[in-house]
Write a structure and sequence with these properties.
Distance between the termini: 31 Å
Mean pLDDT: 86
Low-confidence stretches: 1-21, 308-316
CATH class of the largest domain: Alpha Beta
Strand order of the largest sheet: 1-2-4-3-5-6-9-11-10
Largest sheet: 9 strands, mixed
CATH topology of the largest domain: Rossmann fold
Length: 536
C-alpha cells in the first residue's frame, strides 16, 4: 500500500497522489510500485511511464542484499490443519544479543521480496534502526496469497472456493502458528519463541491493521505493536477518502485547484450523461474504441490523474487565480488540457495493460477486463469480502471524483473479478464489513502495548482509532506511555499534522522520525519490564 515524495507537487492533481494510498484493487500494482519507488528514493513520476527503471533498481537491491528467503509450513485452514502451504519469510539476526526482541515487519498485500531486501538491510530503514537499538532479530513476513506464499496459484482462473481461506481470521493465525517453533541455526542456545522473547510487530496501512489486530487477538505471541495509518474500521462507504483529499488541498492553499477538478468532473459527467456526447468525450481522452467502455470504467481509469499528475505542470496551482481557471476559461478548457496530457494514455496502458490512443497500431482499449495481476486479484478478494473501502464520489459541494464512481459500480467489479463467487457461496453480496468490525472491534478496539500513528490528511485516517470525524469515535489521544499490558480508554499515539499515509514510519521525514522515536520509547519501556513472562 504507500510513501509518496511529491507532497507539494505543483498541480492539484499531483497532490491527490500525495494524499494517500488507495486500497482499490485495480490500482494494486501501481500503488505497490509507488511504495517501492519511494522506498528506493526514486522519482515517483518515472514509475508511471517507465516501469523498467524500477525493475532495474529492484534487481540491484536484490543483488546487494544478504537476506535469503526461507519457508515455513502453515495450515491452509487453521480449523482443519491437515493441508499445508509454504509461507515465505526473511530473517536478519546479525544484531541479536541475548534478551533482544524479534521485530516483525508485515508486508501485507504485496510481494515481500523487495521489502525484505530493503527493510532488513538498509541502515536508513526503521526496522534496521530498531534492531540496532534493541539488539533484536528482524523478521519480514509475507502474507498468505501474496508473492510466493500461495496456498493455491493466484490468477484469473482461481476459484472462489480456493480463495475461501484468504480471510483476516486465517491470516492472523499464521504468525502465532509459526512463532511457536521459531529458531535460528546461528543462535542454537537462544529461545526466540514468544515464551521467552518479546515479539514486536510493525506495519503501516493494512499491515498496520494486522499489527494491532495481532496484539489484540494473540497477545501471547505479539507483545507490542507499532500500527501506522491503519484503517481499523471496515466500512463499505469510503467516500470520505476524497473528502480528505479535498481538505488537504484546501489546507495547503490549493482550493483553486479543487474548484478546477470539480468543474472538470461536472463537465465530463454531463457529457457522459448524453449518449450523443459520451462517445466523443471518451475518444477525446483515450482514442478509438474508448467509446465501447462503460461510464464507470472510463472515469475509473481517468482518475489516474487524481493519483499521479506532476507532469501536468502547465496547470500549476501556484499560477492559477484564486478562483481557479474554470471560471475565466471554462470547464471545457480544463478538460481539454487534462485530455491532452501526453502521459495519460501511456500511464493507463502501463497500468491496465491496454493499448489506448494508439497512433500507429491496432487499438485495444477495453477497460472492462478484471485485473490480471495476482496482487490485485488477492486484494480484490479481501476488499470484496471483508473490508469494503469503496472509494466513490465524495458529497457535494466538495466532490472531486466522477458521479459514475458509485458503490454499485465498485461492487460490480467484485462480481466481474470472481464470476463464480456468488454461486459458490463464498463471495457475499456486499462486503461483510459489520462482521469484520464485530471480530476486531474496529476503531473501538483497545489492545494494550500498541502505539498508533496517522497523518492529518491521510484519506484513511477517518477509519483509524485516531479518527476525529463527527461520525467517528473521537477518542482522546495521548503520547503518555501507558502501563504495560493494561488497556486504556485513550489512544496511545500521535496524529501528525499536515502529514499523509504512513509518514510516521518514514525516518527521512523529520516529523516521522520523531514519531518513530515516540513509538520506540514505549517498546523500550515494555522490554525493560521484569514481568515479561507474565504478560497478557
Amino acid at each position: 500500500m504507500r510513501f509518496l515524495q511529491n507532497l507539494l507537487g505543483c498541480t492539484a492533481l499531483a497532490l491527490l497522489t500525495g494524499l494517500g494510498s488507495a486500497f482499490g484493487p485495480r490500482w494494486a500494482r501501481y500503488q505497490n510500485d509507488l511504495h517501492l519507488a519511494a522506498m528506493l528514493g526514486m522519482d515517483a513520476d518515472s514509475v508511471l511511464t517507465n516501469r523498467s527503471s524500477l525493475a532495474s533498481a529492484i534487481d540491484s537491491l536484490a543483488e546487494t542484499s544478504a537476506v535469503v528467503a526461507e519457508y515455513a509450513n502453515i495450515p491452509i485452514d487453521h480449523r482443519n490443519p491437515g493441508r499445508m502451504y509454504r509461507n515465505r519469510y526473511w530473517v536478519n539476526d546479525e544484531y541479536y544479543q541475548p534478551g533482544g526482541p524479534v521485530v516483525i515487519f508485515d508486508t501485507g498485500e504485496t510481494n515481500g521480496q523487495a521489502f525484505a531486501d530493503y527493510y532488513l538491510v538498509d541502515p536508513t530503514s526503521y526496522i534496521v534502526q530498531l534492531l540496532r537499538e534493541f539488539h533484536g532479530v528482524g523478521l519480514v513476513w509475507e502474507h498468505r496469497y501474496y508473492g510466493e506464499s500461495l496456498p493455491y496459484p493466484v490468477n484469473g482462473q482461481t476459484s472462489a472456493a480456493q480463495f475461501q481461506y484468504l480471510t483476516l481470521e486465517q491470516a492472523l493465525q499464521d504468525l502465532p502458528y509459526f512463532a511457536r517453533t521459531f529458531r535460528r541455526p546461528r543462535l542454537p542456545n537462544a529461545d526466540l519463541t514468544p515464551r521467552s522473547t518479546p515479539w514486536i510487530m510493525v506495519g503501516g496501512s493494512y499491515p498496520g491493521m494486522r499489527a494491532a489486530f495481532s496484539r489484540l487477538k494473540y497477545p501471547d505471541t505479539i507483545f507490542a505493536a507499532f500500527s501506522s495509518s491503519a484503517p481499523a474500521q471496515a466500512r463499505i462507504d469510503m467516500s470520505v477518502y476524497y473528502e480528505q483529499v479535498y481538505r488537504g488541498l484546501v489546507a495547503y492553499g490549493y482550493g483553486n485547484c479543487t474548484r478546477d477538478v470539480n468543474a472538470a468532473y461536472r463537465y465530463i459527467d454531463a457529457q457522459l450523461a448524453n449518449p450523443s456526447t459520451a462517445a466523443q468525450i471518451k475518444r477525446q481522452f483515450l482514442g478509438p474504441g474508448a467509446e465501447q467502455n462503460s461510464n464507470g470504467d472510463f472515469t475509473a481509469v481517468c482518475s489516474i490523474i487524481g493519483r499521479h499528475g506532476r507532469a501536468l505542470g502547465q496547470m500549476a496551482c501556484g499560477v492559477a487565480p484564486a478562483e481557479g481557471w474554470a471560471p475565466s476559461r471554462g470547464a471545457r478548457s480544463v478538460v481539454d488540457r487534462w485530455a491532452a496530457w501526453p502521459g495519460l494514455s501511456r500511464a493507463i496502458n502501463s497500468i491496465f495493460e491496454t493499448n489506448c490512443n494508439c497512433p500507429e497500431e491496432t487499438c485495444s482499449c477495453d477497460l472492462s477486463a478484471p485485473p490480471a495481476d495476482p496482487l490485485a486479484i488477492s486484494w480484490s478478494w479481501q476488499f470484496c469480502t471483508q473490508f469494503g473501502y469503496f472509494q466513490y464520489q465524495n458529497p457535494r459541494p466538495h466532490e472531486i471524483a466522477s458521479r459514475y464512481q458509485t458503490e454499485a459500480y465498485i461492487q460490480d467489479n467484485c462480481y466481474r473479478q470472481f464470476p463464480d463467487g456468488m454461486s459458490s457461496g463464498h463471495l457475499p453480496r456486499r462486503p461483510r464489513a459489520d462482521a469484520t468490525n464485530n471480530y476486531t472491534g474496529g476503531w473501538n478496539m483497545r489492545p494494550s502495548n500498541v502505539f498508533h500513528g496517522a497523518g492529518q490528511y491521510d484519506p484513511w485516517t477517518p477509519l483509524t482509532v485516531l479518527s476525529q470525524e463527527p461520525w467517528g469515535p473521537r477518542r482522546r489521544v495521548t503520547t503518555q506511555i501507558p502501563a504495560c499490558n493494561q488497556e486504556q480508554e485513550a489512544v496511545f499515539g500521535v496524529l501528525l499534522p499536515n502529514a499523509e499515509h504512513v509518514y510516521d514510519l518514514q525516518t527521512s521525514y523529520q516529523p516521522g522520525e520523531a514519531t518513530v522515536q515516540k513509538g520506540a520509547a514505549p517498546v523500550a519501556s515494555l522490554l525493560r519490564e521484569e514481568e515479561f513472562n507474565g504478560r497478557s
